[in-house]
Amino acid sequence: MRPPPFRILLALIPVLLVPACIPVVTHAPRVHPGLAVGTVAAIATDPVLTGEVRTGQSTVTPVIAPSSVFARVGWTPDNSGVPLPVSLGVSVPIALPFSVMHPEADAYVQLSPASHPTLAAGAGVLLSRSYTTPYAQIGRDLDDDVSLYTTQSVAFFHGGDRAPDATLWMPAAALKFSEYSVFVQAGLGRERLGADSTRAVRFLMVGGAVELRDRAIPRF
Question: What fold, for 5-20+28-214?
Answer without folding.
Answer: Lipocalin (2.40.128)
